[in-house]
Design a protein that fits this description.
- The chain has 6 helices and 2 strands.
- The protein has about 150 residues and is mainly alpha-helical.
- The protein has a two-stranded antiparallel ribbon with strand order 1-2.
- The two termini are about 30 Å apart.
- The mean pLDDT is about 90.
């Protein structure tokens, strides 16, 4: 593959990822939830069992202080709550509330809408092939924004 082709592929993937993030966020907002894309990246770590602020910060690639500020924002909006940590009396466990789970389900619906739009262009079979190919090269680990 020529450098120019590699650059074109990189640009297409980055543009698609950005558009997907925007469409999911817009879909979440359209379903009645206030938020921003960083919430979804945090929710992927908090579901299913919760996390400490330190764990959330590591997942997002931010400082403990930045993670604390995000948690404060999520608490104020009713998406998460702090609970005693079952294994560490000094720590607090951050868990999704029912509203947080509802927001997560709204994000899943918005993602499905976005993928259906791809299927309208490419066809179901091609979207399945795309999913397979991207799954083979995608890094494993936390889903995190590029700050």
């Amino acid at each position: 593959m020529q450098n120019s082709e590699a650059l074109a592929l990189s640009a297409a993937l980055l543009a698609t990822a950005g558009e997907l993030t925007r469409r999911i966020n817009d879909g979440v907002v359209a379903r009645g939830f206030e938020g921003r894309p960083a919430y979804g990246f945090a929710f992927t770590r908090l579901a299913p069992d919760g996390a400490t602020v330190t764990e959330l910060g590591a997942h997002l690639g931010v400082t403990k202080q930045a993670a604390s500020q995000l948690v404060e924002e999520l608490v104020r909006k009713g998406y998460v709550e702090r609970r005693p940590h079952p294994g560490d009396a000094r720590a607090r466990l951050i868990v999704l509330t029912e509203r947080g789970w509802e927001c997560t389900r709204a994000a899943e619906e918005a993602a499905a809408d976005a993928v259906r739009a791809w299927a309208a262009v490419l066809g179901e079979g091609e979207v399945r092939v795309l999913c397979d190919r991207l799954s083979r090269i995608a890094p494993h680990g936390p889903l995190r924004p590029v700050w």
